[in-house]
Amino acid sequence: MQHVPLLVICGNAAAAPRWDWSFRSHFLSNQTAVSGREPTRASLQMDGDSATTDASQLGITGEYMASSHYVLQSQDDDGEENLNDHEDGGIKENYREQDIYLPIANVARIMKNAVPQTGKIAKDAKECVQECVSEFISFITSEASERCHQEKRKTINGEDILFAMSTLGFDMYVDPLKLYLQKFREAMKGEKGIPGVSVGESLGEDLTEDSFTNPLPAGIITADGQQQNVMVYTTSYQQIPTVQQIQFS
Amino acid sequence: EEEEEEETPDAKKSISLPVSRVRLIMKSSPDVSSINQDALFLTTKATELFVQHLALSSFNNGSGKDSNTLEYSDLAKTTEENETFHFLTDILPKKILARDYLKTLEQMQEEEEEADL
């Protein structure tokens, strides 16, 4: 049977392991704590009749009834496989990094700008993409991290990320990202330190000791009104016509 | 949740996602010790591209184009049909009605019983 995950919508979900389905609970309370979202995503699409709570009708015993929402999955391969291991793996998965999300407002804004201007976005679609985003980040990160470890390095760098993208089927992002990184680096260089400008042309003359020997007279009027001449020693800024810009190192 | 924007020089203003939060998500991956700045910014920017990609693909591919609204079902459909988004399969299950599910269950049980005979 093909691996087709299904979300079952009903008020009370059955959790009986009598048949060969694996179960994962969505642990929506965890998600709610972080994202502030109500666990309503699974509670849409009720069919006309209210969900039955009569255990006998559903063919399960009462003790399995729970009031949380469940994601039910068909098994991966043939129907006879014991799914206990799979179930554990599935439950562990839900405690993963997906619980941390990016703010929905930011995500929604990017989505809105991506679709045609008059297009709208359903609320559960926004929430869903929010989760997908966390999944994406984790996906890329673990791949990059693995490569990093293989090469005995501890810090994930830009190359690792780009490589991961390429490996995981996002190579269409790589070129725009490289361009972005380049622009970003240039902008950062410009902002670092003094309003720095790189040397356009080389200095005609280096500053030598002679530059310091011409004191500039400066007049100072002291408090008692007498003028004094104070010699201010400073570097003499000789006119060097060839110099366009100077780099302050 | 409130919208977050980084108070940073112009270069970083081209990102519309909070870098600190991205770092948090990255760090929650097992075996991740440190992440350099390039990696962080690339990931953040890539995430932005991803959102655009997913949203637009789903919108064009699904019923969104007719109803002009991007729905959850469009996302689920795109995930199933587009190999790039297969990694999302587990968190984007298709929704079915309870009634249909129960019917399927019954069928399965009948098949099982028949097989046992």
Automatic annotation (TrEMBL), chain A:
Gene3D superfamilies: Histone, subunit A. One of its GO terms (cellular component) is CCAAT-binding factor complex. It is found in: Nucleus. CDD domains: HFD_NFYB. One of its GO terms (molecular function) is RNA polymerase II cis-regulatory region sequence-specific DNA binding. Residues 101-165 form the Transcription factor CBF/NF-Y/archaeal histone domain. Its main location: nucleus. Belongs to the NFYB/HAP3 subunit family. Component of the sequence-specific heterotrimeric transcription factor (NF-Y) which specifically recognizes a 5'-CCAAT-3' box motif found in the promoters of its target genes. NF-Y can function as both an activator and a repressor, depending on its interacting cofactors. This is Nuclear transcription factor Y subunit beta. It comes from Nothobranchius furzeri (Turquoise killifish). The lineage of its organism: Eukaryota, Metazoa, Chordata, Craniata, Vertebrata. The gene is NFYB.
UniProtKB/TrEMBL annotation, chain B:
Signal peptide: none annotated. Forms a complex with DNA polymerase epsilon subunit POLE3 and binds naked DNA, which is then incorporated into chromatin, aided by the nucleosome remodeling activity of ISWI/SNF2H and ACF1. Does not enhance nucleosome sliding activity of the ACF-5 ISWI chromatin remodeling complex. It is found in: Nucleus. Heterodimer with POLE3; binds to DNA. Component of the CHRAC ISWI chromatin remodeling complex at least composed of SMARCA5/SNF2H, BAZ1A/ACF1, CHRAC1 and POLE3; the complex preferentially binds DNA through the CHRAC1-POLE3 heterodimer and possesses ATP-dependent nucleosome-remodeling activity. Within the complex, the heterodimer with POLE3 interacts with SMARCA5/SNF2H; the interaction is direct and enhances nucleosome sliding activity by the SMARCA5/SNF2H and BAZ1A/ACF1 interaction. Within the complex, the heterodimer with POLE3 interacts with BAZ1A/ACF1; the interactions are direct. Keywords: Acetylation, Coiled coil, DNA-binding, Nucleotidyltransferase, Nucleus, Phosphoprotein, Transferase. GO terms for biological process: chromatin remodeling; DNA-templated DNA replication. This is Chromatin accessibility complex protein 1. PANTHER family: CHROMATIN ACCESSIBILITY COMPLEX PROTEIN 1 (PTHR10252:SF54), HISTONE-LIKE TRANSCRIPTION FACTOR CCAAT-RELATED (PTHR10252). One of its GO terms (molecular function) is nucleotidyltransferase activity. Residues 16-76 form the Transcription factor CBF/NF-Y/archaeal histone domain.
